[in-house]
Amino acid sequence: MQVATRPNASPVPLAAAEPELYLTFMLGGEAYGVRILSIKEIIEYGNVTPVPLMPPTLRGVINLRGAVVPVLDLSLRFGREATQIGRRSCIVIAETGPDDERLVLGMIVDAVNAVQEIPPTEIEPAPAFGMKIAGEFIAGIGKAGGRFVIVLDMARVLSVQELAALSNHSGSDALPTAVLEAPR
Q1: Is residue 144 a contact partner of residue 122, using CB atoms and an 8 Å limit?
Q2: Which CATH class name applies to 18-180?
Q3: What is the value of pTM for the model shown?
Q4: Alpha carbon of 76 to those of 27, 37, 67, 73: distances in Å?
């Protein structure tokens, strides 16, 4: 029997582990999920200001109550075509990283679906074939509301080091680090 552990708690059998909440959204016709604890807020798409020398994956920045927040085109990050902005397009503001180095980024998504509970027993490892995005971005495949949801590993999706490496491949000398610093 697998066992789940919580900080400062005794081990809990996995079957008895509490379901976690996930924000589910659509991107390129597929459903994705992100642990709700990674999400700060969801805003309507708009007022994204392009920044010179940014890699194509980063569409620009937005002003979020006085903080400069970089906006990531999640579709481009996954190696697909750029997101086509529609009437339901949103920017999901997420944060990741250790507490002393929290990184805040916006992610463009086609549409936000809902917040859903997914029990740990309903999340399986991603298959090694047939996925339209790199396996390193996937934490697992969950079942929610009768359909499959690709659960993302936000630490990998929002990795500053990998985004900086993208800038080196895009022809710019360096990613403007001031844009990637987390607002505190």
Answers
A1: yes
A2: mainly beta
A3: 0.74
A4: 11, 24, 24, 5
